[in-house]
Amino acid sequence: MIHELTALLEKHGFSLYPQSLRTVSDGTRLFVAARDGRKAVGVIQSRKTLELSALVLQDVKLPSGDSVSLHALTWENYQELKATAPISPSPCDRKASFGTGDRLGLVSAAHLDVLRRYPVFPVPAQQSPRELMRTERDFQDVLLKAVMGVLESGYTGKFGADADHIKDEEYLMMGARAGYSMYTLDVSDWLQDPDASSADRLSPLSRSIVAESGQMKVSGAPISEQELLKSALIYENAMEQIKHSNDLVKGIIPAFDLEVSIDEGSRDTSVEDHLFVAEYLHRSGIGFSSLAPKFPGQFQKGVDYEGNVGALAESLHAHAALCRQMGGYRLSLHSGSDKFSIYRLFSEATGGNFHIKTSGTSWLQAVKVIASANAPLFRELYGLCLEYLDESKKAYHVSIAKEHFPAAPPDDLPGFFANPNVRQLFHISYGVLLDNRREQIYETLHRHEAEHYAFVAEHIEGHLKLLF
Q: Is 348 a catalytic residue?
């Protein structure tokens, strides 16, 4: 079958991804093929039971007499296909989960080829509103590209889709209508100043949590009532917003993972903060799946952890213990890309019950391909990074500045790109680079897809080997 199909497609200028061939209902077979960098879903049928639109190639025949057609993976075609194949995202059903945001929508197949080899639940569709705006995409497109990766790789297991760092109702509803299975609610815009607040404004629920703090201990250590009161003043409003958001999603999606993100801002998350948030939500009947504290130290983009590892270990063990004590939800690590020095510590502290988010690190592998395969384009991109650095820094916490960089890169581009400062520079500049050189970036990556996949797979596996 594969040889005959390959030969047939080649006559029409298409190349087959052999691992994509799968059989679904009524003996219908699906596959993925590409021509000029554009991918399509193929359907092989002896009789037409699956009708898809957006035809790319129609009614050619295999020697067996089965008809073959190729279709763009539109939203309408996805709705038809998911009725016959397990290609819809679902909530996590494993202890560990791993998010691989694919900003360009090109490498979900490479992500899944690696993730399927480890005891981890893959979340290949993961984007935040900030990333959507900078890449000019939407939640539907992100999911479709992830689904294409599922089909292309031949992956048949469950997977997730994360509407990441949601702060407003508009994006929350966009994710829900697209059928996302995970919602990461970022509470940073909903926090209150404890010094400008009064305990009199607290709800009876918050007061009861604070009043009962004397009975609460984490790993044998007592909770500070004074600190818990401060936590209540900071977080109570945010918890009400989470309740509202949860109710909105439940009106559309019956089952989903809810992650609470309290990792943004300058304040390291105390045990009291974590306890108040978890207790408030549990008493309010909100079943969340994971929680992301802000840990001590620096979790900057595209580089390893910077900080006191001893203090981090103490914080990790305390928060992981609280996760176990409060119901067994996963401890989540944001800005989890490239933090190689702490993965084993994180895995051990959590007992393998965790969620990790990576995103920009896969974008950096795309830039690495460009550095090795298209030196003129890399030099153009570098110049744009420097020109727009101050603008790019507004959305990210990084410590780089223009004076850290030469006006032009040296001859050894791959070696130059390995510099942590250069990686950070490109990490935060993806929006500017896509605005100015989108076509050239995609053209280079299409021409060097095998190398791109290899770089991404090797890099993500470097994370997983340390975690497991």
A: no
Owning domain of residue 332: 97-358
DSSP output for 266-295: SPPPPHHHHHHHHHHHHHTT---SEEEE--
Tens digits of residue pLDDT in 105-150: 999 999 999 999 999 999 999 999 999 999 999 999 999 999 999 9
User: 0.90 exceeded by the pTM?
Assistant: yes
Q: Which distant-in-sequence residues (6+ apart) come within 8 Å of 73 by Cβ?
A: 39, 40, 41, 81, 144, 147, 148, 151
* Beta-strand relationship, 182-186 and 161-166: parallel
Q: How many domains does the chain have?
A: 3
What are the pLDDT digits (tens) for 306-347?
A: 999 999 999 999 999 999 999 999 999 998 899 999 999 999
d(CA 139, CA 394): 23
Any domain includes 90: no
Pick from 8, 120, 153: which is nearest to 465 by CA? 120
Q: With cut-offs at 50, 70 and 90, classify the pLDDT of residue 164.
A: very high
Whether 91 is in a domain gets the answer no
Write the DSSP symbol of residue 224: P
Tokens of 148: 């294409």
H-assigned helices in 284-342 = 309-325
Residue among 66, 102, 259, 279 flagged as catalytic: 259
Boundary-marking domain end, from 19, 48, 81: 81
Encode 267-288: b = buried (16+ Cβ within 10 Å), e = exposed: eebbbbbbbbbbbbbeeeebeb
Asked about 186 being catalytic, the answer comes back as no
Would you say residue 89 lies in a domain?
no
Of the residues 164, 236, 263, 279, only one is catalytic, namely 164
